[in-house]
## 1
Amino acid sequence: MVSITELAKNYGSQTLFTGASVQFNPGCRYGIVGANGSGKSTLLRLLTGEEEASSGTISIPKKAVVGVLKQEHYQYESVPILDVVMMGHEKLWQVMQEKEAILADTEGEFDADRYGDLEDRIHQFDGYAMESRAGEILEGLNIPTKQHREPLAVLSGGFKLRVLLAQTLAAGPDLLLLDEPTNHLDILSIRWLEKFISEFKGCVLVVSHDHRFLNNICTHIVDVDYQQVTLYRGNYNDFQRQKVENRERKEAEIEKREKEIGDHKRFVERFKAKPTKARQAKSKAKQIEKIVIDDLPRTSRRYPRFKFVRCRHSGRVVVEATEISKAFGDNQVLNNVDLKLERDDRLAILGPNGIGKSTLLKILVGELAPDAGEVEWGYETHVGYFPQDHGELEGHEKETMQSWLWNYAPGENVGFIRGKLAEVLFQKDEVEKKIGALSGGEKARLLFSMIGLKQPNVLVLDEPTNHLDLEGIESLAKGLTKYDGSMVVVSHDRWFVSRVATRILEIRHDGIQDFRGTYDEYIKRCGDDHLDVDVAVRKARRQQLE
């Protein structure tokens, strides 16, 4: 259906990839992976025509409908949410608007022929089912029916982006291009999106840093690395195994050729002066000249080293929150919540967006006052807090990374600070970079370096994986697994939670579920229903009827 041939993309002297040739077929779902800056999102922009390739060709059938996840919700602020979604099918929306204009024109002459043509086209597009389909997609993304007729402006930024995702999905595209579609979704909505994409009949290309999402949806992985674009069959776990095997096979081949050269050289050195062997020695020398060993290219993937060491043990009870309540206007997000964190607990708090997970963390660390209830920290607790909005860096935009981090280790020399920055992938020429110029991922790595310097015995982490790439998430999970303090984390990344948590607290609209065990054990015990939005919607409707 879609093919790229000898595709290359350069920015000045920087080569992202070259000689890329891949065919993308209907019914297949391709996950695009690679280090930050390797060219994953650039590849999508080349396919949409937003950028031009340096060389090569892209072939997309003229009649193919391409669905692209956009980020510009500002143009729809006053438009009803349901209409924003239906606008995704541009041709159908134009026909429906023209039909409405004919019906609204009570003074002019009614054009029956044009009206009939429009009706035929609406039926051709299955237009009268569009509103129902759009509503189902919105519900799947956890936007309730009661809000569908309200303007987009009533939603928060994250939910506005969900509406744009719904717009992309509702268009019925042949080719679906999604760049980080899970970024603003909770676990419920991610699970729904997985099911939607898995049942999608067209071709899907998705960039994502969510391991489990890629494992659950992908039939193929497109790896952007070594300045090449390589296709692997299978999901993300299959790709990781195949890539290691390919690398080991190439290394073994190089080792074999190097040994062959060594054997020939020893033969030549030993017998080149011996008349009876001189002819053979000359032949071996020629064989050496013919053996070509290509250097293995260096991967663009880089893994930061996140190190967390506690300063000392805390008391047995780390923190206890009692009857915590919090509302924002008429929106009651927390109501009489109790939480007790004990030493060595590794607690993950789950739940749909807007239910109060981040609010609870802010109350625990004193960033936000509760309307009712109290929080008491235990003996000798030293907290390392990672805020979702990177608030620790606010007001320091003009400060360099090196000077900011040095504030947390004033007794150390500059070499120590630069070493700590190097651990989280900031090289010598980057340490003087201003904080205001950092990307989300760079800010996250800097904050984790600071937290490591503080040596807390309890970590409070609010969506720590949001801005990290796959390598960063794997490194963070590894660092937290080695950490021997207590931890409470809010995350929508199921792979990450399954690696680091040994206790699950799920906040639901009907109460709190506290489970001592891993995420996988929790799923095994509860089944998949609590992640199935279709079940949740049916349950909510039953409750409304009762």
Note: DSSP finds 18 helices and 18 strands in the chain.
## 2
Amino acid sequence: MNIALIVTLGGDLVRSTEHVGIGYLSAYLRKYNHSVKVLEIKEQDISHESKYIPMLCDYEFIGFTTTCVTMKNVTRLVDIIKGHYPNSYIACGGHMATFSGKELLEKYSKIDFAIQGEGEITFLELVQALEAKKELSDVLGIVYRSGSKIIENQSRPLIDDLDMLPFPDRDQFEQHDGKFQYIRLSTSRGCLGHCGFCSSFAGRHQKGPRWRGRSPKNVVDEIEMLVKKYDFHTYDFVDSTFEDPGYKGKMRIEGIAKEIINRKLDIFYNCCFRAENWSEKDHDLLKLLVDSGLEKVNIGFESGNARGLKILNKRATVEDNWRTIETLRHFPFIYITFGFIMLHPYSTLQDIRDNAKFLHDTGMGQVIRHYFWMLEVYPGTLLEEQLKRDNLLDKQYDIDDGMYKYHFQNPEVCAFVPIFQEMLSLTSVWDFEIFDILIHTFITRLQRKYWDSPIIDDINLFHDFVRSKRKKIADFNYTFFMELITNLEHCDVAFMKTKLDSFLLDEMDTIKSEQYKLGLKLRRHGYQMNIR
């Protein structure tokens, strides 16, 4: 069967478009001799049908991946495509199909199937059943139409042996001529955390172990293949938690690091940690990970006090968060980025003050977005159920809304919402976050490469300059935020926005100027600037 898999660009897929789940689906379908086309459609192109409708004329089955962010655009596309090709099958997979599959088909008559949970085997069996004109009742993990009825079949067990899957295809990478910041790579599925806002596992009904990991050899076989095929060296490990499950998990990632080093693969990579899993006892493992190319970790700190962590159902404590921060300070090549929820339906003024103090005191408060981030509530999460019980949702969930709208247990914090949203509307707030990571990458890759060269003194001087700037920015952010929340009634929002915007732009320009000077010196002395 000819199958088109469509990626609608939105949310995290705007800055980097690669969807590794689609890559797995296409690889699995192609393994069984189905023809697959992967097509990206931007939100602004949906109304320009001539850009994509002709490309779909030969495809009998069209699949979409869905998230809360992209759902509205998916349904727009479904209407348009079904209007042109009424005999094509249309299926949705991903987050919304997994948690709201039956509701999708009830609300949108032009969607024929929802594929719930891991889609590789389910999608293949659905296509095979349609080709053979077999009954669909035996295809686990689908929602489908039977006459006027909508049938939800039994869930499919989770895939236990991930090594049996083919490596994901890289159609999107090739469509962009390899001009990505990184290639996404999945070394495991599932998570042993139970965060109240996360749908990584909560709400799923598939049988099987919650967490499964690929073997170190299988993971590094894929990396080596990608390095040799594309000469590409930066990877984003998209696992919910890289080090799960416990001791065995750390042995697994130690094996991955050793394989990378033993094969002399000159790569860099990012991954996600959970704070409760790390301490000074892991020093040797962390050094090994850094030696193998680890340069950024994402940790879900989420709150600066115990009350907030409990509400968000975090297993980590405030002490865990601080211990992990202090442990990672010994590894300056690692950039720490993190999840943080400043405001949620149960927030108090004291919570907000505690959160702000935590952000500042960690020494990582230079990214001001964290000060304004608000909880996003998605279907299938523990917090969804809690908010329903506490009558804090504004209305019944509407699939088109993307996420729940909610109100606050403490009305005094409601006034923060429009102001936080105004600050997040500044492009500079988002640009600085990326800029800060890129500057760290620029510095640490140079330090790794030229640690024993005469130019290292100049690199370290620039690093010291950037550190001083980060402290200045972090101090400004804390003072700015506290001024906002303390003088809310008399706050001139437009003035404060301009103040923040000008400050961030000026600081970025100053750092760029010094970076340019260092670059000139490196080039004059014959040093390579493009550290891949």
Note: The chain has a mean pLDDT of 94.
## 3
Amino acid sequence: MLRATPHHGFLIRALAATFAIAVLAGLGLAHLLLRADWRTTVIAFIFVGAGVVGLHILRDWRFGIVSFFAWIVLEDAIRKYLGNRIVLYGAKDVLIGLTYVSFLFAQAVRRRSWEFRNPIRAPLIALIALAVAECFNPQIEHPLMPVIGMRMYFLYVPLFYLGYAYADSEERMRRFLLFALALGAVVSGLGVIQAMIGLDFLNPKGFVPGLRLELIRVAPESRMAVPRPTSVFVDAGRFAHYLFILFFLGLGAISYWHALRGEQEGRRRGDEETGRGRREMRALLGLMHRTPSALRRQECLVWIAFGMIGAGLIVSAQRAALVLAGAALLILVGIACRQRFASWIARCRESAFPLGKIVVGMVLALSGLALFHTEHLIALYRFCAETLSPLARESEVTWRPKVYWTDILVALRESRAFGHGTGTASLGLTYLYGLDDFYSGGTWSPYRVEGGYASVIWEWGIVGVGLWMWWTLALIWVAGRTARRLASSRFFGLAVALALFLAFLHVPYFFLGLSVYQNYVNNAYHWFLSGMLFRLPKLAGGRSEALTT
């Protein structure tokens, strides 16, 4: 006999409310169809679909996580064909809001004490308190600026907790890794095709307010053109940021599957020698429903996805992402060589990082690009060499860092201790002043500074940048310590990759612009993967019972 719970009662009331909303939405859609406003009709259908998906999210918050990460990738493809309407921004906020509500209800039904203790709670709470106080700064010019700023900075912070709760077992963690990398491989492949056949592919014709869909960079000396693809996104930079995240996730996934298969094969050899059964081996690895061939297929899929993501990152032509990805590979090579040396001393052949597969994946990506479009690869090389080499006449290395440091000095001089207020340098300000002149040739901009740290100083002053550095350095330190704790487990490579991602995102990459953090794709993945990283020690210890339903 089924017993009603408060959660079930809430679902019944939510279903009734959704039915009423659906009836009203149907009447509204009929009215819109009579007016022949097809764009508004499509947007209305999107929100009705979000409501239907929301019902399932209220029953299963993990479904909300997957739906949200799928939507933030696909949203831009709809936006650029519907005229960049600001109302579409609300769809992802509705999805993540319903996910938060569902998670809280699930926690209330379970009535369990929360196990996760936020390792950066003190600096994070201090920063949020300052941001709230800065919402009342008298220098704020528009009443919506603080709303925009608080959303850009802190809307996805709860994903830190949801990421920890989501990865309550290795099976769920593997599913998310496969989902994220498979989706990234498709998006990356579309970007590669767009770079090869032309930027008209996957982009609407004509001018779209607020969007710059066809961006072509030119090498200063050779004058070779390098098109920057957007794939499904509305901005080439967001496409590069997305692949930058997945590049590190792919590195960690390859290392994890390599170590997992190595442990399984080693256990099988030991079982054959000692006569133990296969059931004990599978229980040890948590693979009761996975066969060795399934693991090989998953590892092959991860390897292919990593190669596709690497190819997309190369054709994205964002120099900062390429340089940081190369630096990460060098660091991993150093860690792997150190492990190889230690393994040789210990007479052990296994290493956490399969350097051969990683190198082969990158070589295949470069070879594929060279085979299908050699001119594009040559142009990309010339562009990077002529703008990054200190020996080049038009090298940006000689003057661009000075611009960022100058912005910091300007922000310090004009902001003093407490800055101009929350949101005064955040993304989205152009939507407050209209999009007609944006990217249309005008020189006006609502932003006075460019760099990430300069923007934080502009908003919150010296006090704010101090708190910002406190929480970011604390996060990097705890992430590195977590990776060291996993040095002898199969999660070590994944933990190192995620810790490197956090370190590069918050220090060198963030120095170049606030959008590196505030971009919703970066921000959401940043908090969710951070929570997942801090769950790995519990998975390694064998305690993987679910925190929530």
Note: The chain is about 70% helix and 0% strand.
## 4
Amino acid sequence: MKFRNLLTALTLVLLVGCSEAQNNEHNVAQTHNHKQEVFYETPVYEKEWMQPGIHPDRIMLNIGADPTTTASVTWRTTTEVKTAYAEIAKATAAPKFWRTAQRFTAKTTLLDGREVEDAGIMSNHHSVTFNTLEPNTLYGYRVGDGEHWSEWIQFKTASKTNDKFSFIYLGDAQNNIFELFSRAIRQGFQKAPDARFIVYAGDLVSPADSEEDWTEWFKAGGFIHSMIPSFPSPGNHDYHRVYEHEGNKGKYKQKLSIQWRQQFTLPENGPKGVDELKETSYYMDFQGVRMISLDTNKLLEEQAKWLREVLANNPNKWTIVTYHHPFYPISRGRADRTRRDLFKPIFDEFKVDLALQGHDHAYARGRTIDKTTGTMYVVSIGGGKMYRLSPEGWERWGAKQERDAENTQLVQVLTVDGDTLQYKSYTATGELYDAFDLVKNEKGPNTLVDRQSEAIDARYHHNTVNKYHDELPLDLKNIVMAKYKDAGYVNLQVDKIKRALDSEAGIYYGIEIRNKAKEKLKIKIDESGNIFEEKFEAKY
């Protein structure tokens, strides 16, 4: 009897224990399943992350005006490396292919950014140009100081015949480069691992001299930069403003990023005698394509004259021009016609086939409505900064957007094969978003084969993941506008509102407002209406 009572008691204890355990598990499950608000935390990059070392980094491959015989490589080290080398050999599958290598001493220059805002680093930059290469040949190269070497990196020179090839085109990287632009460039590499070069339509970074941004840009692309040559065109954010007077007001001059010419070795065949356009306005011929970079930030008249000469003496079947500022803007608040009025007549006269542009942080492509000139204009975005499309479209300027998008990171792969140029635009997640073919027509403009029906549905802010901007509560909006109205800040940028979390202030809204002079004021206001941070930025 005692045994039976003891057994019963033990059974009750076990049942109670199991019941409590189940309740605890249920409570834990409820805790884990409870949806909490997530605030995005921007990564912090320590200074050590962007410092050069004794080992080569930022290895960048560029091709010359004649890519059948010429290629250049640049890289970075600490200032301890006074003498550096590049070795190159024809690549074979044998591990010791390097036995036939030649060694070249690099040109070394010092980049002293200690007194430059956003830079702050001293480094040596090394460059070598290989100018006796053989066409259509696979080479392996490495760079170093004689002891500390990079890996062997392979690339192929262009063919002298107009063989089929592909290249990649990317719009602005600019913001959140390592976080988000990395998705686009790596997706491009996945789609076209044999691409022969990559076109960048400006705003690679922002601000122009930021070592942090340049570090992000190089790390986003990783080894891709050293294998697939870059063909970059500078955007407005690749320049910084040098004001005549203190206070960042009044007259200013635009100065190219101090890293640009140190990190790229590009053709020097731009407008003669205009040093300011050196390695920003240039061209190359690649297997039947004349690829031209315009620097649409400055000296436009000088470039227009040069462009006419470059196009008048063009033996290639295809002509593609890349530059930053769209002739037909697609984003709200942009309507500049200076560049269109200057350059479009030249494009029309010489039948430019394709214009690859950036700047507007959205996507569109199309042609003039009469379709008599044939140029296809494309604007794309590779990074994470997004704008809204202008509701007016291109019709007000006599053109039509045939496909567009908002809030979507994209990368383009273009393939040239004889009389056909194939264009495909992919999302950063690999979905086909837009496609068309241009077919050469001896009797008139190119024939367009529109293939967007093969792509996914159109993407805009209203039908993509979350809203691009957070809503500012009306009471907080009234506080902000009341405080800053007298100072002329009447333009609240609704696309520049971010709800975030601060360790001390708690939940807050980051807001950007502008005055009529387009000067920016960035503020942070908590949910109680307390403004706890103000940051003024001059017009850019």
Note: The chain is about 20% helix and 30% strand.
